[in-house]
Amino acid sequence: MAELRRGPIGLAWGKMDPSDRSTTVVYHMWVAAEGRRRGVARLLLETLTEWARSKGASAVTLGVTVGNVPASQLYEQAGFKPVGEPEPLRPGSARMGQDMQLELRDSSAGDIEFVDFSPDHLDPLILMWRASFERALGMTDPHPLEDQKQYFIEKILPHHHVRVALLGAQVVGFCAASDRSVAQLYIHTEFQGRGIGTAFLAWAKEQSGGCLCLCAFERNKLAQRFYERHGFRVVGRGVEETWNLEDVKYEWTRPD
C-alpha cells in the first residue's frame, strides 16, 4: 500500500499461485487520482516484484484490459510481455483482457563483470543511464542525449572513478564515486535486484576515506530504502537544482 499523510493513495495485491508456487499473480492494482503521474504505480509494482523474488518466484503474471494504454505502457516498461491471445474479460463480454508475464532473473550478480570505464562504454552507458533515470523517476528526460554525454565527459569523468558492470558486452550498470561521495549509481532496468548496486556500494565504501555522502530524489523510494539498508543515514533534505525536485541527502561512516 502507498500512503500520503492524508491516507492511502495506492494498493497492489498479489499472491503466489496455489497451483504453481514459482509464479506470483497480481490480482489488483489501484492508484488514486492524486497519486497518478507521480511514480506510485511503478513503485507498487516494483515492490510487489521484489516480494515475489524474495519468495523464490520465477515469474509474475497479471492481466490488463485491452485499450488501457497507460496500464499497458506501465507493465511493458517494467518488463512484462504479452502471453497468449486476448480473451473476453468474462463470458459474453465485449471487453477483452490480455495476460502479461515478467520473467524474474536470478538475483545473483555472479555472472556480472565489474571493470573501469573505457571510451567503448560511453554510448551504451548513456542510453542505459537515461532509461534507468526515467523509470526511477517516472518522467521523460527532455535533454538531448549528446548533452548528457558531454555532462558525463566534462563533469563526471574528471572528478570521479567510474566503474561499469558488464554482462558480456552489455553495459548493465555504472557507478561514479570519489573518496568522499557517490555521484551516480544507475542499474539497467532489466537487471535491478541482482546485487549489482550492492556490489557498487561495497566498492565505493572500500575506496573511500571512511565517509561517503550521496543524494537520492525524494520520489525515488526504492533508492532510499536501498541506501538505508546499506548503512546510509539521512542528514538533510533539499531541492536538486537541475530538475527542481526534492532530494534526500545521505551519509555513511565506516564503523570503528
Helices and strands in order, then pairings?
Layout: E1 2-4, E2 7-17, E3 20-31, H1 40-54, E4 59-65, H2 69-77, E5 81-88, E6 96-103, E7 113-116, H3 122-137, H4 145-156, E8 161-167, E9 170-177, E10 182-187, H5 196-207, E11 211-217, H6 221-229, E12 233-240, E13 245-253
Parallel strand pairs: 3-4
Antiparallel strand pairs: 1-2, 2-3, 4-6, 5-6, 7-8, 8-9, 9-10, 11-13, 12-13
Describe the structure using short key phrases.
6 helices, 13 strands, 29% helix, Aminopeptidase, 256 residues
Task: Characterise this structure.
It is a single chain. With 256 residues, this protein is an alpha+beta fold. The protein has 2 domains: 2-103, Gcn5-related N-acetyltransferase (GNAT) (Aminopeptidase, 3-Layer(aba) Sandwich), CATH 3.40.630; 113-253, Gcn5-related N-acetyltransferase (GNAT) (Aminopeptidase, 3-Layer(aba) Sandwich). The protein contains 6 helices and 13 strands. The longest helix is centred in the middle third of the chain and has 16 residues, at 122-137. It is globular.
CATH fold node name of the largest domain: Aminopeptidase
How much beta, percentage-wise? 35-45%
Could you list the spans in which at least 5 consecutive residues all have pLDDT below 50? Answer: none
Termini, distance in Å? 38 Å
**Which CATH-level-2 architecture of the largest domain?**
3-Layer(aba) Sandwich
| Overall SS class | alpha+beta
Q: Find the count of extended strands (DSSP E, 2+ residues).
A: 13
**C-alpha Rg, in Å?**
20 Å
Major β-sheet annotation: 6 strands, mixed
CATH level-4 homologous superfamily of the largest domain: Gcn5-related N-acetyltransferase (GNAT)
Strand order of the largest sheet: 1-2-3-4-6-5
Kindly give the count of domains. 2
- Number of alpha- plus pi-helical segments: 6
Helix content: 25-40%
Outline: globular
CATH class assignment of the largest domain: Alpha Beta
String of helices and strands: EEEHEHEEEHHEEEHEHEE
